[in-house]
Design a protein that fits this description.
Blueprint lengths: L12 E5 L2 H4 L6 H7 L16 H14 L4 E5 L2 H4 L8 H16 L3 E7 L5 H6 L6 H16 L6 E6 L1 H10 L10 H26 L4 E12 L5 H24 L1 E6 L3 E6 L10 E13 L6 E4 L17 H11 L6 E5 L10 H17 L4 E7 L18 E3 L6 E3 L1 H12 L7
Parallel strand pairs: 1-2, 1-11, 2-3, 3-4, 4-5, 5-8, 8-10, 10-11
Antiparallel strand pairs: 6-7, 8-9, 12-13
Bound molecules: beta-D-fucopyranose.
C-alpha cells in the first residue's frame, strides 16, 4: 500500500523555471552595461546570445514537456518591452504573446515574472527604485504586461527575489545599479513593495481573478559560532529581514527591517495588506552568519557541515533547511509555490539525488499541513548565471555553449519519473 507521504496529489504542479536575460539572448539592458564595465567575476564574460531561447523556444517547450512539466516559468524582459521610457515596442510585445500562446498550446501553464533582476538602461538614470516615480513607471509597464496574459490562465510573479536585488544592487553595490547605501536601500525596498501592489492591481483589473505573488530567495540561516550571542542575534534579525520582511509586508501591510548599523525601516503600507495570492519560495542552501566588529558587521559563508561536499558554485547542500523554510512560511496562511530550487552540478551526477532529497522535504512539509501546490525546478537549461557568468550549470538539460545543443542530464529521467508517476522513488 502507498504511504501518503511518498506521493504527490494529482493537482500538484511540476514545472521548470527560467528568466529572460539568462536564456533569451540579444538583450540590451543594465546587466549588459555592467558586463561591458567588466563587473562580472570573469571580466570578459558576456551574456550575449545567452542560450538563444528567443529563437529556440519551441524546442525548449518540447524539452519541458518531455520531462513531464506542466508549468513553465519565464520572465518578461522590460528592456525589450520598453526600450525608452514611455515607448513600448509592439513587436516585442507581440513576440512574447506569440511565445506564451505556443507555450500554452504545448500544454504548459505559463508562470510569468514581470521583473527578474534586470532593467532597461534608462531606468536607473531616470527613475531609480529609491525614487517614488519608479512605482508609477513600473505600474505602466505592468499594464502592458497584463494585456499579454489575456486568456492564458497564467500565474504572475511581480518581482523575483527583491531582497537579492536590494542586497546586491543597493547595499553591496555588486550588481546593477551598484549603489551601496543603507538608507537608499530602505527607500527602494518600500517602493518595490508599492510597485508590487500597483502591478497586482493592473493585472487584476485586466484579467480578473489571477494568482499573483512574489518569488523570495529564502536561506536557512545558522550562527557561525553556535555559542556566540551576536552570531545568534544576526541569525534572528537577518533571517527576519532577508526571508520575511517582504512577505510580511504583503501579508500585514507593515514593512519592518531592523538591522542596527546596516539598515532599518518601519513603514506602514496599508494597501499592501493581503496583496498576494501565494507565497513564492526560491530555496537553495544554508548560510552561516558571523558578527564582525566593523561595518557591515556581518560575514556570510557557506560551510560543508555534513561532509556532503559543497555544490560546484560553493553552496551547502542542505535539504533539511528546505523543510524549515516551508514551515516558516506557513504563518502567511497562503498556498506555497516553490518557484525555484536546483543545483549547480557540472557533472550532472548529483542532481537526481538533490531532487530526491529536496522533494522529500516538500512532501514532509505537506504532511505537516503546509499547502505546497507546485514545484518549479531551476532550471530547464544551463544558462548565464549573473556574476558567475558561464561556469555554473543548473540545467536539467546540459547546453553546449558553443553549438547550443541541448542534451538531457541524468536528472531528466528522474524528474519525469516523479512528475508523471507522482511517487517519490529513490534515484537508481
Ligand atoms: C536565483 C535567481 C536565478 C538563478 C538562481 C541560481 O537567485 O533567481 O535567476 O540565478 O538563483
Amino acid at each position: 500500500m502507498r504511504t501518503p507521504e511518498r506521493t504527490f496529489p494529482a493537482d500538484f504542479t511540476f514545472g521548470v523555471a527560467t528568466s529572460a536575460y539568462q536564456v533569451e539572448g540579444g538583450i540590451e539592458n543594465d546587466w549588459a552595461e555592467w558586463e561591458r564595465a567588466g563587473r562580472l567575476k570573469e571580466p570578459h564574460a558576456r551574456c550575449g546570445r545567452a542560450v538563444d531561447h528567443w529563437s529556440r523556444y519551441e524546442e525548449d517547450y518540447r524539452l519541458a514537456t518531455a520531462v513531464g512539466a506542466t508549468a513553465f516559468r519565464i520572465s518578461l524582459e522590460w528592456a525589450r518591452i520598453e526600450p525608452e521610457r514611455g515607448r513600448f515596442d509592439e513587436a516585442a510585445l507581440e513576440g512574447y504573446r506569440e511565445r506564451l500562446l505556443k507555450m500554452k498550446a504545448h500544454g504548459l501553464t505559463p508562470v510569468v515574472t514581470l521583473h527578474h533582476f534586470t532593467h532597461p538602461t534608462w531606468f536607473h538614470r531616470e527613475t531609480p527604485w529609491h525614487q517614488p516615480e519608479s512605482v508609477e513607471v513600473f505600474r505602466r509597464y505592468s499594464r502592458r504586461c497584463a494585456a499579454l496574459l489575456e486568456g492564458l490562465d497564467a500565474r504572475v510573479i511581480t518581482f523575483n527575489e527583491p531582497m537579492v536585488l536590494l542586497l546586491g544592487g543597493y547595499l553591496q553595490g555588486a550588481i546593477p545599479p551598484g549603489i551601496a547605501d543603507g538608507a537608499l536601500t530602505m527607500k527602494a525596498l518600500e517602493n518595490l513593495v508599492r510597485a508590487h501592489v500597483v502591478a497586482r492591481r493592473e493585472v487584476g483589473e485586466r484579467l480578473g481573478r489571477v494568482e499573483t505573488g512574489i518569488s523570495q530567495n529564502m536561506l536557512a540561516f545558522a550562527p557561525d559560532r553556535w555559542w556566540n550571542p551576536l552570531d545568534r542575534a544576526l541569525v534572528r534579525l537577518g533571517g527576519q529581514a532577508y526571508n520575511h520582511a517582504f512577505h510580511e509586508a504583503l501579508s500585514t501591510g507593515k514593512l519592518r527591517v531592523n538591522m542596527p548599523g546596516v539598515a532599518t525601516t518601519r513603514v506602514d503600507i496599508p494597501e499592501a495588506r493581503d496583496s498576494a495570492e501565494f507565497v513564492g519560495v526560491n530555496y537553495y542552501s544554508r548560510a552561516h552568519l558571523r558578527f564582525v566588529p566593523r561595518p557591515p558587521f556581518i560575514e556570510f559563508k557557506y560551510r560543508d557541515t555534513q561532509g556532503r561536499g559543497l555544490t560546484d558554485i560553493g553552496w551547502e547542500d542542505w535539504p533539511e533547511g528546505f523543510l524549515q523554510t516551508l514551515r516558516d512560511v506557513k504563518r502567511y496562511g497562503k498556498p506555497v509555490w516553490i518557484t525555484e530550487n536546483g543545483i549547480d552540478d557540472r557533472s550532472g551526477t548529483r542532481r537526481p539525488q538533490y531532487l530526491h532529497t529536496h522533494l522529500a522535504q516538500v512532501l514532509a512539509a505537506r504532511a505537516e499541513g503546509v499547502d505546497v501546490q507546485g514545484y518549479l525546478y531551476w532550471s530547464l537549461l544551463d544558462n548565464f548565471e549573473w556574476l558567475e557568468g558561464w561556469g555554473p550549470r543548473f540545467g536539467l538539460y546540459h547546453v553546449d555553449f558553443d553549438t547550443l545543443e541541448r542534451r538531457p542530464t541524468p536528472a531528466c529521467d528522474y524528474f519525469r519519473q516523479v512528475a508523471t508517476g507522482r511517487k517519490l522513488v529513490a534515484p537508481l
